[in-house]
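Retry 2 of 3 after timeout on previous attempt. Resubmitting structure tokens to design endpoint.
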């Protein structure tokens, strides 16, 4: 007589073994065994009971999901649900021929609701949002768990079904009143901060050290209404509290708000603080990389991109940062590819849409660029840079009327601040009839914020047209008193040349190039001055050029040809 088995595992059915391995996370083992058992079941339908077949299909589908084979997983989940329907028609579970002990139908069966949730996850990974909504909509409201309501809310929001999205977010908060992302979802859909706060008031009052939550909700209500100043002040008051000091999420939000308000210096500072606290931080690093690139710090951008790729290449941010490096290095086709890759990873990445839109615009594909900027506006209606990109496209295609309508709408929607005033003035400068209006708008902007660089640049452009160089010099010196900016130093150099202050102009060009070594206009201004300083040498050079058939122009043509060859080689990067 053989000895009695020492382990209870010997008395388990083979399906129970599969279930144990699945709960232990042995996905590759589950996939192999369940695949073999399903083949056996197909060859002998009586081998396993309906409930066992259902379990095997679910566990096999789960293992496929873990291996990211989403389409195959959906197929198996669908078969499992069909098997479940057949099972529900049978009141009793038939015992399987190969197993002495059978599990009662009511016990240990995977939840049908969970199966549908997993199917919805597969559909979202396959970018089939309509199918995901359909499968979750089929679950009765009372049976929906918080995670199902959260997924539905996000899917509804993405599909533009705002009312349904609000209902689902509220249901999440009813079940889990501290679901902060659901709170942000409601605020982003224009639900009043007071109404959202009322849904959390009971838990705030019953749990100690949660008094900050009502202020947090108030802060993000300001964020989503576009009131950047009050949002910054409220988050700063939170951040100063000892218990929330050095919170990376709050610092990231502050950095983003400073960026939206046009305060790039403070934005970079806050991003750097957040990065020091969390060296693996990814969120917001796309905006940080863009700001560094705009300042001409391309080496820092390249290093940031490499670091982010080492953290994760499955997020949009590292691709956007590398794209910014390419864009500001004037490699637009590569920037286009990198932007497209980022959108592929995250279709809601506003910075990726702006990058791709800017690359398309600079490549002369203005209509395609307009589509991307419009999508960015849909996703971030309070971000001015989205509107700026669209208006630049309109101006590039001489659609001044459309640009004026858009600028006026932004002015009315986001309010009269230095940024919206400057944006409207930028469009007015394009039409000779509205020059005086542009001047008035710029004066208002500079009264509000004398250091706002874009307003200073546009006012300088206006003064240059009127040949009021002394006024321009005074304006630029005043703007540079408390900040240093490459463009402002370069324009000051241009104005100084106009009033024959050559030495100081040379100094300004040098400062501009020290801030951004890639600034071509500063380099051209400096080279032009160097030629004018030695007219005899310049005349001799011109004579030689004439004798040699304009050799200098030939060099320029050669460099264009070389650039064209590089562009041809990079065409494969271009993604539609």
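Retry 2 succeeded. Sequence:
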């Amino acid at each position: 007589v053989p000895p009695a088995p020492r382990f209870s595992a010997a008395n388990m059915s083979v399906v129970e073994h599969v279930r144990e391995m699945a709960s232990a996370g042995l996905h590759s083992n589950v996939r192999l065994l369940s695949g073999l058992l399903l083949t056996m079941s197909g060859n002998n339908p009586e081998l396993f009971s309906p409930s066992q077949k259902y379990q095997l299909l679910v566990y096999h589908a789960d293992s496929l999901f873990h291996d990211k084979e989403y389409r195959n997983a959906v197929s198996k989940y669908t078969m499992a649900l069909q098997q479940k329907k057949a099972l529900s028609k049978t009141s009793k579970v038939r015992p399987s021929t190969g197993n002495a002990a059978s599990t009662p139908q009511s016990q240990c069966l995977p939840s049908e609701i969970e199966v549908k949730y997993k199917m919805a996850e597969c559909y979202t990974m396959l970018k089939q949002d309509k199918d995901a909504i359909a499968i979750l909509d089929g679950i009765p409201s009372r049976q929906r768990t918080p995670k199902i309501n959260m997924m539905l809310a996000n899917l509804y929001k993405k599909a533009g079904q705002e009312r349904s999205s609000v209902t689902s977010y509220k249901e999440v908060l009813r079940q889990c009143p501290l679901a902060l992302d659901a709170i942000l979802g409601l605020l982003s859909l224009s639900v009043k901060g007071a109404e959202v706060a009322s849904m959390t008031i009971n838990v705030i009052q019953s749990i100690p050290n949660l008094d900050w939550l009502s202020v947090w909700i108030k802060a993000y209500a300001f964020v989503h209404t576009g009131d950047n100043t009050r949002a910054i002040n409220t988050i700063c008051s939170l951040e100063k509290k000892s218990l929330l000091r050095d919170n990376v999420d709050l610092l990231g939000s502050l950095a983003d708000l400073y960026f939206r308000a046009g305060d790039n210096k403070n934005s970079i500072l806050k991003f750097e603080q957040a990065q020091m606290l969390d060296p693996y931080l990814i969120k917001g690093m796309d905006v940080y990389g863009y700001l560094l690139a705009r300042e001409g710090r391309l080496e820092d951008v390249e290093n940031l991109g490499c670091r982010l790729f080492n953290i994760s290449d499955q997020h949009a941010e590292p691709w956007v940062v590398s794209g910014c490096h390419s864009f500001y290095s004037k490699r637009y086709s590569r920037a286009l590819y990198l932007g497209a890759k980022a959108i592929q990873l995250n279709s809601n990445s506003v910075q990726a849409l702006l990058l791709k839109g800017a690359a398309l615009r600079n490549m002369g594909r203005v209509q395609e660029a307009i589509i991307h900027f419009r999508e960015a506006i849909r996703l971030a209606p309070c971000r001015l840079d989205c509107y700026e990109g669209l208006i630049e496209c309109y101006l590039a295609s001489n659609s001044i009327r459309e640009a004026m309508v858009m600028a006026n709408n932004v002015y009315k929607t986001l309010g009269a601040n230095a940024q919206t005033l400057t944006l409207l003035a930028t469009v007015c400068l394009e039409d000779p009839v509205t020059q005086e209006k542009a001047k008035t708008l710029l004066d208002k902007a500079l009264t509000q914020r004398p250091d706002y660089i874009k307003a200073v640049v546009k006012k300088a452009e206006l003064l240059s047209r009127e040949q009021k160089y002394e006024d321009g010099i005074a304006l630029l010196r005043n703007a540079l008193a408390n900040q240093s900016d490459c463009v402002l130093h370069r324009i000051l150099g241009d104005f100084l040349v106009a009033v024959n202050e050559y030495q100081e102009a040379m100094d300004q060009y040098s400062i501009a190039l020290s801030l951004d070594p890639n600034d071509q206009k500063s380099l051209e201004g400096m080279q032009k001055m160097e030629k004018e300083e030695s007219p005899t040498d310049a005349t001799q050079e011109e004579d030689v050029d004439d004798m040699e058939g304009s050799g200098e122009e030939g060099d320029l043509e050669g460099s264009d040809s070389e650039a064209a060859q590089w562009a041809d080689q990079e065409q494969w990067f271009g993604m539609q």
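Attempt log closed. The two ends are 73 Å apart (CA to CA).
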